Amino acid sequence: MKPIGFRSGISTTALVIFLGGCATYYQSNSEFNNVFERGDLNKALKTLREKPSEGAGKKQFLYFANNGLILSLLGKYAESNQYLEKAYTFGEDYRINYANEVASYLTNPNFTVYRGEDHEHLMLLYYKAINFLKMKKTDEALVECRRLNIRLQQLSDRYDSPEKYRRDAFVHTLMGIIYETDLDYNNAFIAYRNALDVYDSDYARLFSITAPPQLKQDLLRSAKLSGFDDEFEDYKLKLDMPNYEPDVSRTGGELIFFWHNGLSPVKTEWSLNFVISSHSGQIVFTNADMGMRYAFATSDYSSKEVRALTDMEIYRLTFPKYVERPPYFSSAQLSLGTEIYPVQLLEDVNKVAFKCLDERMNLELSKALIRVAIKKATEHQFRKDDKRLGAIIGMMNAITERADTRNWQTLPHSIYYTRIPLREGANEVTLQTTDYQGRKQDHTFTYEVKKGETHFHTFTSLESLMPSSGYY
């Protein structure tokens, strides 16, 4: 791993504090981000831990998750899992602080605790499971497998629309890999079959991602090992692999290789101006350029509040948005002797993140409308009594109108995998990465293998290209 990073009045004191709050989450953690993106992981961990208070504050999920991810990259798997478990427990035990929720409407959503996105909670368990597999603790990995299954069920129960991100093919594939490592070929087959179904029915439509050929081979092999002869023959035809015969002899071992390519998107913010009007018993917020129109019943407000709102005419709303960090490398392959094994796209974390945020934009919009309406109505009431104080409140409102730009930014952009057979004894395997200009880099690894043994390896490329629009 050789990361290159990105090529990339009111008192004066109070004003400075407010202006300091205008930075995005990425900007406010620039020192940590710089050393992490350069691949200086020990310094990144030290920098992260210089703010231990975040482990008990509104960013504790991210503090635990970042600690866990970096420790995993450093090969400290047991310690990594301790932090990842803290992040997982936070997600399980999270309770809404209603006082903070109310306060967020008077300031901005950064006043609330960051809960973590749906896909981020799944990625916690992915890293935990991989850590256990590297430590050859298959039973513990199976526990994470069951937790993943529960998380997926929760997603499915929460969203009933097929246009929502509610099933994860990557997670089902990982579950199949864990079951197969435990020689539970029956459950492995079911998990691989579920993964194939999600790729075909959800991922192809939502993300333009199809099932990797390696998954198809895994499905057929697990069917064969389970004795599901009819299913084996049916899937050979369905997958257009009529002549495929898996090697089930297990005379040697095997390597399951995961390539974490690039870095996940960064949240920044964007804004829209809305015109406010009142008619037919409604307060109407309109942005003609974007074709947006949202109405609230005036019965929810007093006549004084309605007049205060409609007197404002125009105001600005801010929303979170993702900015992609395009990966520096475009592809990779493994070689063992004369055999070549391309690593294949398993999960596009970047696209999943965009989808998760997109699905709750209506909620973000409604919260922003309520937040700014309350702030602006308060400002206008103050202006009636004291124009100077009203102007100060207006300035504070403008400064504090920010979007929540927090997210788990040390995750990979995308995850690839492949499986290759190894012989007993020493095996020298070379990973060759190809960058966006066609230049190649080689990394060689040696594995000492016993009969029937499975090795797990993750390789992380932190290099990214400059995003098309800035975020710092």
Brief overview:
The protein has 17 helices and twelve strands. Among the domains are: 81 residues, Sandwich (Immunoglobulin-like), CATH 2.60.40; 92 residues, no CATH class.
Keywords:
472 residues, alpha+beta, Immunoglobulin-like, 12 strands, elongated, disordered N terminus
Which secondary structure elements does this structure contain, and how are they paired or packed?
Elements: H1 12-20, H2 25-28, H3 30-37, H4 41-49, H5 60-73, H6 77-93, H7 98-106, H8 118-134, H9 138-158, H10 169-181, H11 185-206, H12 213-226, H13 229-238, E1 253-261, E2 266-279, E3 282-287, E4 292-297, H14 303-310, E5 314-323, E6 329-336, E7 339-342, E8 344-347, H15 349-359, H16 361-385, H17 387-400, E9 414-422, E10 425-435, E11 440-449, E12 454-461
Parallel strand pairs: 1-12
Antiparallel strand pairs: 1-9, 2-3, 2-5, 3-4, 6-7, 6-10, 8-9, 10-11
Helix pairs in contact: 3-4, 4-5, 5-6, 6-8, 8-9, 9-10, 10-11, 11-12, 12-13, 16-17
Describe this structure as you would to a colleague.
The chain has about 475 residues and is an alpha+beta fold. It is about 50% helix and about 20% strand. The chain has helices at about 10-20, 25-30, 30-35, 40-50, 60-75, 75-95, 100-105, 120-135, 140-160, 170-180, 185-205, 215-225, 230-240, 305-310, 350-360, 360-385, 385-400, and strands spanning about 255-260, 265-280, 280-285, 290-295, 315-325, 330-335, 340, 345, 415-420, 425-435, 440-450, 455-460. Strand 10 and strand 11 form a beta hairpin. Helix 3 packs antiparallel against helix 4. The protein is elongated. Mean pLDDT is about 85; it is low at about 1-20 and about 95-105.
